[in-house]
Specification:
Layout: E1 2-6, E2 9-12, E3 17-24, E4 32-38, E5 45-50, E6 56-58, E7 66-71, E8 76-81, E9 90-97, E10 113-114, E11 118-123
Parallel strand pairs: 2-11
Antiparallel strand pairs: 1-3, 3-8, 4-5, 4-9, 5-6, 7-8, 9-10, 9-11
Length: 124
Amino acid sequence: VQLQASGGGLVQAGGSLRLSCAASGRTLSSYLMGWFRQAPGKEREFVAAVRWSTTTYYADSVKGRFTISRDNTKNTVYLQMNSLKPEDTAVYYCAAALRTITSMIRVPSSYEYWGQGTQVTVSS
């Protein structure tokens, strides 16, 4: 599975962005899909994930502001980010996991495939 993330950019606080993660090489429908982010000097952290059943999971820091969704017909996963804050600034990565139990969804090592990352910068 090859993952290509896009949609990052520079936005003012309070603004919105939509990230996309397009997959090739294999259909995503059976994979758990996740978004992670990594700010300079910090560890990679979980943002959101969605199962093939469309069950979703969110980090507390983004709950109510971000929405993860998937379109299996387009083999693409999205992350709609609203009410952005300067602390959301990071490189955002999409990832895919074939089999992951719920308790491990927030752990980066649970994911087998990773995209290249897209930069999101939120100015104050």
